Amino acid sequence: MTAYPAVPRTESTHHRLIDFAKTALTKIFLFPYATVCELYCGQVPDVEKFDEALIGHYIGIDVGTSGISQVREAWESQRKSYTSDFFELDPCTENLEPYLLDKANTVDVVCCMHHLQICFESEERAKILLHNASSLLKPGGYFIGITPDSSMIWAKYQKNVEAAAYHNRSGAMKPNIVPNCIRSESYMITFEGEDEKFPLFGKKYQLKFASDASAETHCLVHFPSFIRLARDAGIEYVEIQNLTEFYDDNRAQLASLILKFGPNLVDPRGRLLPRSCDVLGLYTTFIFQKPDPDMAPPITTPVLAEGTHICDEASLFYYQAVHYFQRDWQATTWRDDEKPSMEPPPPPPPPGLGKISDQKGILGPGPPELRFSEAL
C-alpha cells in the first residue's frame, strides 16, 4: 500500500485541505518516469508526492528570494531515485527558454500550486507565465494547479455590494458606501478600493485565514482571460473546477485520502464538514493540455471509477486520466418526431471548451461581464 505524508494534527485546517487537494491532483496526473516542472516551488517542495509517483526528473523554478538555493542543497543531499534541476528565475517576468534550452518540449506535467494569482497583476505577466509553461510542455503534456476561485470570491463580494445598495436606498447606511470586506468563520477577504467592476487584470485583495498572523495579497484571476491567453500560448483549456465540486465528484475515492490529513474535515460518511466546504470553496483546480495531433481531444478531470482505490500506484491514476475517460462519439438516430428544424446549426464552440452551459466551476454566479461570450 502506498504511504502518505504524515500531516501534523495541529496544522491549520486550510493548510491541511490545500495539501490534500494538491495530493489528489498530482496523483491523477503524475506517473512513473515522468518529467515534472514545478513553477514557484517554494522553500518546501512537495517531495513526498514526487517520490511516491516514481517520477523520472524534477525541475524546480522559483525566484531567488524564495530560498531555492537552500532547497537545492537539501534536495541534492538526499539520494533521490530521480534526477533534479533548480533554477532561480521568476516564471512570470523572465523567459525561461534561454536558461532551459534542453528542457523545451520535454516536460510531461507543469504544475503551479502556488502564486498563479500574482501573475494576473498584469496581462504581460500572465502571458509570460503561460508562454513558459507551454514552451516546457511536450505535446500532450498537462499544465495543472490550484488557485483561489475568483468567481466564488467575486460573487460573495457582489452580494455585499447588493446589500449595501439596498441599505443605502433604505437609509440604513451612509450613501455610496461599498463594503469591501468578506468575512467567514475561517477567513477574511478585503478588497483594495471600492470598485464594483471586475477588471481583467490587477484587481487586488487581501486574504487572511483565522490561523494566520498576516494577510497575503492576491489578484483575481479572470478565467476567460486565463483561457484566452493560454490558447494564445499554445495550450488548450480542459477544466476549471471548484475544489468542493472536485471533491464531491470523486468522493467515493477521495474520502479515504482526506482522512490522512487529520481529523474534523469530513463526517463519517465522507461528506465535507461546513468549515471544510467554506475553505475548499475558495479554491479551484485548473487543467490545460498542450495539443498533440496523435492524441484524442483533451479530457476533463476524471471521475475515478467505482472500486478504484486512491492508494493504488501512480500509474493507475495516469491511466485513468489519459485513457479511461476518453469521450464516446456516437452517431445519433432521429425519430420522425425528433428531427431538428431546417435552420442552420449554431457554430461549434472553440476547440477544447465543449458546451459552455455544461461546464462547472468556471465563473459561478458572477456578474455578466465575466461570461465567455465577451471574453472569447
Q: How does this structure look, described?
A:
- The chain is of the alpha/beta class.
- It folds into two domains: 13-149 and 220-325 and 348-375, Vaccinia Virus protein VP39 (Rossmann fold), CATH 3.40.50; 152-209, no CATH class.
- The protein has helices at 13-29, 47-53, 68-77, 123-136, 150-170, 223-233, 243-249, 251-258, 274-280, 314-324, 372-375; strands spanning 35-39, 57-62, 83-88, 107-112, 137-148, 181-183, 187-191, 204-209, 216-219, 236-242, 283-289.
- The strands form two sheets. The chain has a seven-stranded mixed beta sheet with strand order 3-2-1-4-5-11-10, sandwiched between helices. A four-stranded antiparallel beta sheet has the order 6-7-8-9, covered by helices on one side.
- The termini are far apart.
Tell me about the largest β-sheet. 7 strands, mixed
Summarize the helix and strand pattern as letters: HEHEHEEHEHEEEEHEHHHEHH
- How much strand? 15-25%
- Euclidean distance between termini CA atoms: 45 Å
CATH fold-type name of the largest domain: Rossmann fold
Give the total of domains: 2
CATH class of the largest domain: Alpha Beta
Radius of gyration (CA) equals 22 Å
Strand order of the largest sheet: 3-2-1-4-5-11-10
* Uncertain residue segments: 1-10, 304-340, 348-376
Structural class: alpha/beta
Task: Find the count of extended strands (DSSP E, 2+ residues).
Answer: 11
* Overall geometry: globular
CATH superfamily of the largest domain: Vaccinia Virus protein VP39
In which range does the helix fraction lie?
A: 25-40%
- Number of helical segments with 4 or more residues: 11
